[in-house]
Specification:
151 residues; two-stranded antiparallel ribbon; 5 strands
């Protein structure tokens, strides 16, 4: 399952036998060499730290996944669904509910680098409703990309 999508008109991947990628293609392509797709390479392609100087790929949003990719995601994340009666909208709803429940369980700051110095020593009982709403809404708007990046 490809977690990234090409967001630049057309470019040649010099690390993957000069394969040509165009806007909207999945990255990496099926059959791409494992050696050509490293974390360092992906970091360069997501940023402007590459020969073209602009981001060439980005994380896919869940609504950009194909039905088979959503099924694969659900299976790998233990999200149960009715295998006889499902479609893309149902799977997207189940994934959304799963991510929301993880947020409510306090998993919104899974990356410790995102926690500010003031938040490190804050106990859950010391946070206000406004704090929780603010954190939840800012995280929720980007939750798909974050959860996707963890996979």
């Amino acid at each position: 399952m490809s977690k990234y999508i090409v967001c630049y008109k057309k470019w040649k991947d010099l690390n993957d036998n000069n394969h040509i990628y165009t806007n909207g293609d999945n990255y990496p392509r099926e059959g791409a060499s494992e050696a050509a797709i490293t974390e360092k390479r992906i970091a360069a392609l997501v940023s402007s730290d590459n020969k073209i100087g602009v981001p060439l790929i980005r994380l896919k949003e869940f609504d950009e996944y194909t039905l088979s990719e959503l099924v694969e995601y659900c299976h790998s994340n233990n999200i149960c669904y009715d295998e006889l009666n499902f479609n893309k909208e149902i799977l997207l709803s189940l994934i959304d509910v799963s991510l929301d429940s993880k947020l409510s369980e306090g998993e919104e700051n899974t990356d410790s680098s995102e926690i500010t110095e003031g938040e490190k020593n804050t106990k859950p009982s010391e946070t206000t409703n406004e704090d929780n709403i603010s954190k939840s809404s800012s995280f929720k708007s980007n939750k798909y990309a974050r959860r996707n990046a963890e996979k």
